[in-house]
Amino acid sequence: MKRSILERYGDARLPRYTSYPTAPRFSASIGAGTYGDWLSQIEGDDPISLYVHIPFCRSMCWYCGCHTTITLKDQPILDYLDVLKREISLVADAMPRKPEIATIHFGGGTPTIMEPNEFLDLDFHLRSRFAFVEKTELAVEIDPRTLTDEMISALGRAGVTRASLGVQSFDPKVQKAINRIQTPKQTRAATEGLRAAGVGSINFDLIYGLPHQTVASAIETAETAISMRPDRFAVFGYAHVPTFKKHQRLIDEAALADAAGRHAQAEVIAATLLDAGYRQIGLDHFALPGDSLSIAAKTGSLHRNFQGYTTDACETLIGFGASAIGRSAHGYVQNEVAIGRYAQSVATGQLATAKGYRLTADDRLRAEIIEQVMCDFSVDLAAICRSHGVSADTIVNGNPQLRRLLADEIVTLENGVLLLRGEERFLVRAVAACFDAYLAQAGRTHSKAA
Description:
By secondary structure, the protein is α/β, with parallel strands linked by helices. It folds into 2 domains: 1-20 and 360-450, Arc Repressor Mutant, subunit A, CATH 1.10.10; 22-320, pyruvate-formate lyase- activating enzyme (Alpha-Beta Horseshoe). The chain has helices at 2-9, 32-40, 75-94, 116-129, 149-158, 172-178, 184-196, 215-226, 259-275, 292-299, 339-347, 361-376, 381-387, 393-396, 400-407, 428-433, and strands at 13-14, 48-54, 56-57, 69-70, 100-108, 131-142, 162-168, 201-208, 232-237, 279-281, 285-287, 303-305, 308-310, 317-320, 325-327, 331-335, 353-358, 378-380, 411-414, 417-420, 447-448. A hairpin with a 3-residue loop joins β10 (279-281) and β11. α3 (75-94) runs parallel beside α4 (116-129), α3 crosses α11 and α4 packs parallel to α5. The longest helix has 20 residues, at 75-94. The chain is globular.
């Protein structure tokens, strides 16, 4: 049954549903003027979240799907940080109040490519324009290969609460095939240094489906990582889209596992983490029982945003930097992707918005359903539809993909409640896709479902 299901669903290319509608629906009809209007309408005392994008790395990892630029020089980074601080001021000036910050996430690229004093200066600038409080969470993505003791100290001084370390795989053969050589010793030193500096939560990123990766090496990587006892894991399937990420053409496609092989790697990583006492959170996260992510999953307060599964419940997310995506009650916005165009926009005193999306009533309904499916593996369609003033029949009837999932016994639907069978939870993206009104227009830009 499982192989048959994999053959039917495993090769489908589907969104990760970190937003709905997904980024391919964004258009240039939403620009700087619209975003400025949306910012001016942010009122009340509700906290907001921030995302700060640092699109630079010292070398290219061939599996990477992020927007980043390779530089061996510091001047492009310094120039970018000057523009970034100016954008932060422009956005803050467009808002009617100085909002409280719930969370701030520094992503990349490699945020720790900055010098320590530059990170502290950026942190100071953000604090001068927004209201940081004692409970504000600060998260930073880190490349352990280039992390220095001085940067660790700066992260501690800034009050960073969570660090996310890229690991991917400890298998030397895999590392060579993806152009990322990283030893367990480097990773352990970074982990221990961050903890000593007061960073209370550590996350490791792992990837399955990489070239030359095997079930055995996936287990070995997981066991090595577990020995360092991070608080969380994010375990992603490699998305091979060389048409859009040209550096992925350097990866030998013949060395990539098929759907069954990818699934086997994902299964053994999950089993190894579960055996070590971690709890599975949604599709691809794992956390220790006392971690806030585990508690949120247990209490039904888990959410999903552009960083994956999160405890962040803020309606407003402000994105800073080239390619950064933000969200408000009105919809989504994304900055210019190219660093040069981003800098030109900010230099003229304009917001750097290049495109976005204005949410409709139907979008809000489907977004709530999709998020709950992705987080809880079940959703009360009748209750959600009722809260939006529509009949569940508008979602269920005439839905051939949902009928197919019901026929294959991947989901059940009783009294308006849709439930994903436990052993088929790896297909949760296929279930969420049932409620995506735009999926047929997205093409093959997404990763495989399994």
